[in-house]
TrEMBL record:
Span of the signal peptide: none
Coiled coil spans: none
Pfam families named in the record: Methyltransf_18
Species annotation: Parathalassolituus penaei
SUPFAM superfamilies the UniProt entry points to: S-adenosyl-L-methionine-dependent methyltransferases (SSF53335)
Superkingdom of origin organism: Bacteria
Protein name, UniProt field: tRNA (Adenine(22)-N(1))-methyltransferase TrmK
Entry-linked InterPro entries: SAM-dependent_MTases_sf, UCP028234
C-alpha cells in the first residue's frame, strides 16, 4: 500500500493520540494503512459501503498488520455509530464530492454533537458548499490548507464538533491562502484563478447566486 501525496498529507494532519480513527471512504485502505504505520490511534476503523472491497481489505490487513488493532465496517459513513465509542475520535472523509460530503455531515450532525470528535475533510469539489454546511452546523476550525496533486488542487479542512470555542470556517478559506511553505503561494494563485472562474460560470448561468463566495474571494489579498 503506497499512498500518494494527498493521502500522506492527510495522515500527517490527522496526528496521533486518538482512541479511534475512522477512515471513511477508505480509498482501498491506503490512508488507514499509513495511519496504522504512524500508530495514530488505539483502534483504526476502515469504512466503506462496498462489501467486496471490505472483504478484500480485511484479508490484506490480516496479512500485513496482524498485530495491529483495526476493524472493518461495511457501512455508510453517515450511519456510523460514533456516539457508541468513547474517548478522543477522528473521522476522516476524503475522496468524495462536496454534495455527498454535505449529505454525510447533515446526517451525522445530531448524533455527534457533544462528542470528543474531530473531522478531517478533503472534498474533491464544491468546497464552498462544504464550508457553508460546516458553518451552519457550528463546526470549529482547527486547520486548513491547500494541496496540489496531479495538477488538481484540494482543500484539507480539520474541524471540531460543537461545543467549542473555535472560530467557524470562513466561506472561502482564510489561513490556507497565506501558507508560508515553499511553493504554496503559487498553489494558492492557481486555485484562486480556477475557483473564481468556476463561480463566475455558475453566477452567469443564473440558477444560483454565488455572489457571497465571489465577494469573499475578491477580498482576499494573496501574497
Amino acid at each position: 500500500m503506497t499512498p500518494g501525496k494527498r493521502l500522506l498529507r492527510l495522515a500527517e494532519l490527522a496526528g496521533t493520540g486518538y482512541q479511534h480513527i475512522w477512515d471513511g471512504c477508505c480509498d482501498h485502505g491506503q490512508l488507514g494503512a499509513a495511519l496504522l504505520d504512524r500508530h495514530a490511534a488505539n483502534t483504526l476503523h476502515f469504512v466503506d459501503i462496498v462489501p467486496a472491497l471490505m472483504n478484500e481489505l480485511a484479508q490484506r490487513l490480516s496479512q500485513w498488520y496482524p498485530q495491529a488493532n483495526w476493524q472493518c465496517h461495511c457501512l455508510d459513513v453517515a450511519q456510523l455509530p460514533l456516539q457508541h465509542y468513547s474517548g478522543h475520535q477522528l473521522l476522516i472523509i476524503a475522496g468524495v464530492g462536496g454534495d455527498l460530503m454535505v449529505r454525510m455531515l447533515n446526517q451525522l450532525a445530531s448524533a455527534i454533537s457533544g462528542l470528543n470528535l474531530e473531522l478531517l475533510l478533503c472534498p474533491v469539489n464544491h468546497c464552498q458548499d462544504v464550508r457553508t454546511t460546516l458553518r451552519e452546523l457550528g463546526f470549529g476550525l482547527l486547520h486548513e490548507e491547500l494541496l496540489e496533486e496531479n495538477r488538481r488542487c484540494y482543500e484539507l479542512i480539520k474541524v471540531r464538533v460543537p461545543p467549542h470555542s473555535l472560530a467557524l470556517p470562513s466561506l472561502v478559506g482564510d489561513a490556507m491562502w497565506h501558507d508560508q511553505r515553499a511553493g504554496q503561494a503559487e498553489v494558492a494563485r492557481r486555485y484562486m484563478t480556477r475557483t473564481q472562474a468556476h463561480l463566475q460560470r455558475i453566477q452567469a448561468g443564473g440558477k444560483e447566486d454565488v455572489s457571497p463566495w465571489l465577494d469573499a474571494l475578491q477580498a482576499i489579498q494573496l501574497p
